UniProtKB/TrEMBL annotation:
This is Carbon monoxide dehydrogenase. Keywords: FAD, Flavoprotein, Oxidoreductase. The keyword Acetylation does not apply. InterPro entries: Diverse_Substr_Oxidored (IPR051312), FAD-bd_PCMH (IPR016166), FAD-bd_PCMH-like_sf (IPR036318), FAD-bd_PCMH_sub1 (IPR016167), FAD-bd_PCMH_sub2 (IPR016169), Mopterin_DH_FAD-bd (IPR002346). Pfam families: FAD_binding_5. One of its GO terms (molecular function) is oxidoreductase activity. It comes from the Bacteria. Residues 1-177 form the FAD-binding PCMH-type domain.
Amino acid sequence: MKAARFDLVRPRDLAEALDLLSAPSGVVKVMAGGQSLGPMLNLRLVEPDLVVDISAIPELRRFERAGDTLVIGAGCTHADIEDGRVADAGPDLLARVASGIAYRAVRNRGTVGGSLAHADPAADWPTALLALGAEIELASREGRRRLPLGAFLTGALSTALHAGELILAIRIPQVSPSAGFGYVKHARKIGEFAHALGAALVDLDAQAGRAVMGAVDRPPIVFEDAGVLFGGRIGPDIGAFDRSVADEALKAAGVASEAARHVHVEILRRALAQAIDRAPSAARAAA
């Protein structure tokens, strides 16, 4: 099947793009890399009157450090991050996530902003960036605003984007040198959508951690205090992982299958173990 007829406009800068989005005529869709929108167009799951291709806008391809925050333009591709053309938030964090997304051809075109705007529960970036405490910067003709990523993701394939608005950048706090990041994905084969995702950021010296379970039919499940998964406390003498806490969270999220919950819990356990193993705890080293 081929896409229904639509108009295509490729704005040269952010102001032109926002002008197009602020005065829509009919159904308007924004396209960055097109790795999600393209198949939807061909399957006629969406039939827009206008597609605004934002891939040539320089403001969306920038990255910079603003104090202790890494700011990545929404138009940066997965391959930009994988290949180091975009700075990382810590040693081999974002690059590790990017390298596991689909296939290289998809990573060459797909963008981090496009992935977040599509909000597929099985996508890598929502889960990984929630663990890293990311914020989303949004732009419209009326101005700019920021949202925590958790507030931006409102449901499966659903976000807090307003009409006339697009993602400008992702803001990621620089990861502490004493923290470890873990990311584990379960899929039947390389390149396939994930069936379970686990991400964790653990700082044993600061006795703090955040853990996330993704690939559920809703926004990822976030444990803002990962200590609840270890009997209430994270530290150099961290205790055993309590599977029942994660299992109960999945039940509350509507995951009825015991087998599916087992997979999700195990993937989270592995992500946490990876994060703990990568956390260079001074207290643990001295013991």
